[in-house]
Specification:
Layout: E1 6-11, E2 14-15, H1 22-40, E3 44-52, H2 56-65, H3 69-87, E4 93-96, H4 100-112, E5 117-127, E6 132-134, E7 152-161, H5 167-175, E8 180-182, H6 184-195, E9 201-202, E10 204-206, E11 216-217, E12 220-225, H7 227-232, H8 234-237, H9 245-251, E13 256-260, H10 264-277, E14 285-289, E15 292-294, E16 297-298, H11 309-316, H12 318-328, E17 335-337, H13 339-367, H14 381-399, H15 403-424, H16 431-451, H17 456-468
Parallel strand pairs: 1-3, 1-13, 2-3, 3-4, 8-14, 13-14, 15-17
Antiparallel strand pairs: 5-6, 5-7, 7-9, 10-12, 11-12, 15-16
Helix pairs in contact: 2-3, 5-6, 6-10, 11-12, 12-13, 13-15, 13-16, 14-15, 14-16, 15-16, 16-17
The structure holds zinc ion.
């Protein structure tokens, strides 16, 4: 027997200075669809997510609350983990950067890059929010472009990584899609950043600035690893880099990293350079998603517009939340959340579109006085052609991470079935009508299959109703 193909997918690991918001949910749900899709293709999937806990942000957030850093990160990391149940995620592992396996791996990677690491005194503008030094030219009116805060001027003796050395190599790798960046607008953004010149990066901080929080530099406990140098290694640490070579060989390189647009530089440049330096294989693809806005504004604590994914799920259910994020938000761009948009999608697409079709077909099958035999094949060629086309477009859309387009083609099939019902009038009695019901049952079965990666619970319910011919509303109208 041929060995199963493997597929290793990761999400970004999130900062735990605050609990998750709906933007985090977006990325996790996107990754979950891809993981489920590849499992359905018969591949062996490893889906990793986790939390980035060594950041100085946590030290500050804990201080503000008057609790220990450990207490703060434990509390918020638990909430990130709980997204698994709330959003029905199928990740196989959840790595926390405060775990020992991560510490060991991060230090091992540091040692593997030793030939490219040197020490020097550095003065620079540092944004604590980003955990990154900025060039003056990158600031917007003197403020961090991400956080709109003024970076601090910092002078320290730190370790540096020879990023400049890898400039040409990384450029070629990105240009040739050796590491493929999707969408190509992000690929171009990375290439132009490389063209502007890569400077060596500072990869450690004075330990005292972190008040003891963070991973010590091997052989120099006065220094801790820069949080990005530390965090990126999670992708290899979770699959055995520190101490399980067999597992590591099986899963690395990653087939797909999913990250937000704010952190591609770390993944498409720094991470690649670190891996080359350590003589490790490179990830195959990086998919970059946009941000979730709320009524066209950035979600932020200070604006008080943070959408809590747990509240949403509590109010509407898991699958409606998954559906909205996947259908309404353009996968590679920013997308907007409002309750009106959410309820609009819910009523039109779920209650009316999908819910209505399933209820009609199941009810007709149950009410038909004729015994509906278990058809194996659709006898209406137009319906069959439409299904074939749907499958093809759906596959293409998913391969390009166009979640919304994959759902649009499924809903086109739903509309086609609605029209087919109007035309065939299967609620009337007769052989032709019986055949139409048989065809519709097969079409609904196909729809449930296509929806499995997106709406797993709903898909299962539809399969159940097809078996029992008992209709129960999938999405009660709001
Ligand atoms: Zn910043």
């Amino acid at each position: 027997m041929r060995e199963k193909e493997k597929f290793y997918i990761t999400t970004a690991i999130d900062y735990v200075n605050a609990p998750p918001h709906a933007g985090h949910a977006l990325e996790k749900v996107q990754a979950d669809v891809i993981a489920r899709y590849h499992r359905a293709l018969g591949e062996e999937v490893f889906f990793l997510t986790g939390t980035d806990e060594d950041s100085l942000k946590n030290v500050q957030a804990a201080k503000k609350e008057g609790i220990s850093v450990k207490k703060l990160v434990d509390r918020n990391a638990r909430k990130f983990y709980e997204l698994k149940k709330a959003l029905n995620l199928t990740f196989n592992d959840f790595i926390r950067t405060t775990e020992n396996r991560h510490l060991k791996g991060a230090q091992k990677l540091w040692k593997a890059c030793q030939k490219d690491i040197y020490k020097k005194t550095y003065r620079g503008l540092y944004c604590v929010g980003c955990e990154e030094f900025y060039k003056k030219s990158e600031l917007v009116s003197g403020l961090c472009p991400e956080h709109k805060t003024r970076p601090e001027l910092i002078e320290e003796e730190n370790y540096f990584f020879k990023l400049s050395k890898y400039q040409d190599k990384i450029k070629k790798i990105i240009e040739n899609d050796e590491v493929k960046i999707i969408p190509c607008t992000r690929k171009n953004e990375i290439i132009s950043f490389i063209n502007s010149g890569l400077k060596d990066i500072c990869i450690s901080r004075l330990a005292e600035r972190g008040q003891g929080w963070g991973i010590p530099v091997p052989g120099d406990p006065n220094q801790i690893l820069w949080t990005w140098y530390d965090a990126l290694s999670n992708y290899i640490n979770a699959i055995g880099y520190p101490d399980n070579p067999k597992k590591f060989k099986k899963w690395w390189p990653a087939d797909l990293h999913i990250v937000g647009k704010g952190i591609i530089r770390f993944h498409a440049i720094y991470w690649i350079a670190m891996l080359i330096s350590a003589k490790l294989a490179l990830p195959k693809t990086i998919f970059v998603h946009g941000y979730l806005t709320v009524a066209s504004q950035k979600m932020s604590k200070s604006l008080g517009n943070v959408i809590d994914p747990f509240e949403l799920v509590k109010k509407y259910g898991t699958d409606p939340v998954r559906y909205f994020l996947l259908r309404e938000i353009p996968p590679a761009e920013d997308g907007d959340f409002t309750y009106e948009k959410f309820e609009g999608r819910y009523n039109a697409d779920l209650a009316k579109g999908l819910g209505n079709l399933v209820a009609r077909v199941i009810t007709m099958a149950k009410n038909s006085k004729l015994q509906i035999p278990n058809y194996k094949q659709i006898t209406n060629s137009k319906l069959q052609t439409t299904i074939n086309k749907t499958q093809k477009k759906y596959k293409k859309a998913l391969e390009d991470f166009k979640f919304n387009e994959a759902l649009i083609v499924v809903w086109d099939l739903i509309s086609f079935c609605d029209k087919y019902i109007e035309k065939e009038r299967p609620w009337e009695e007769g052989e032709k009508q019986k055949e139409a019901i048989g065809n519709l049952l097969l079409a609904v079965n196909e729809i449930a299959k296509l929806l499995e990666p997106f709406l797993p619970e709903t898909s299962e319910k539809i399969f159940g109703q097809l078996r029992t011919k008992k209709s129960k509303s999938l999405f009660p109208r709001l």
